[in-house]
UniProtKB/TrEMBL annotation:
One of its GO terms (molecular function) is carbonate dehydratase activity. Belongs to the beta-class carbonic anhydrase family. This is Carbonic anhydrase. SUPFAM superfamilies: beta-carbonic anhydrase, cab. Its EC number is 4.2.1.1. Gene3D superfamilies: Carbonic anhydrase. It comes from the Bacteria. Keywords: Lyase. It holds the Pfam family Pro_CA.
Length: 58
């Protein structure tokens, strides 16, 4: 699940929305057995900072 969130952060559209509108990505998983949301506690801004340096997307 965490890798899917990171893949989303790599997209140009998400990076542009983060830069222009302050978009945040949250990694949550729904547990069908308990009915609760589990926060994966992904460091969105940390990942994004590293990724933007590599991909340089506009």
């Amino acid at each position: 699940m965490q890798e899917q969130c990171v893949n989303l952060i790599k997209t140009a559209a998400v990076q542009k929305a983060y830069r222009d509108r302050g978009l945040k990505v949250h990694g949550w998983v729904f547990d069908v057995h308990t009915g609760k949301l589990i926060d994966l506690k992904i460091d969105f801004e940390g990942y994004l900072k590293d990724i933007m340096e590599i991909y340089h997307l506009d």
